[in-house]
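Board notes (copied after class):
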Amino acid sequence: MNELPGFSHPAEAQILARIPEAVRDRARAVRMMVFDVDGILTDGSLWYGEHGEAVKPFNALDGHGLRLLREQGIHVAWVSGRKSAITARRAAELGISPILQGVRDKINTVEDLAREAGLSLQDLGYMGDDIIDLPVLQRVGFAASVPNAPFYVGQAAHWTSTLRGGAGA
């Protein structure tokens, strides 16, 4: 029996139970979760083919996690500093919308997303891994990162995944 309701598999509740209560309280308040892409949903690598096309790997575990968020009624959005047809394709496969690419000023973009949804920044969670994500991480209600992020990003996070970016974080 799950000690934490809303999860389909007992292991999901066991994992959640290892997270400190204060962090779980912040996570429970999230109504929209926004993700950076490169370094969070991918490992940050960019592979180029002989004709210049960029290829980057996404992890199926992240797709499952995004589906679980949506099943809990949490809206999911992606905000990326890079423009990539591959990112748009993966978002479409997962039914993620909006996906905003080529964004350099992420805090203003995330503020706009919140406003359009009738939410405050305290209602949002954000997962990022680099300096461009820092202003957002410092202002949202739930800030998350990955263990391979620079130390200054990790210091801004309320929670750090045990898995690296692109590995199911």
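Comment from the instructor: The CA atoms of residues 122 and 141 lie 4 Å apart. The radius of gyration is 15 Å.
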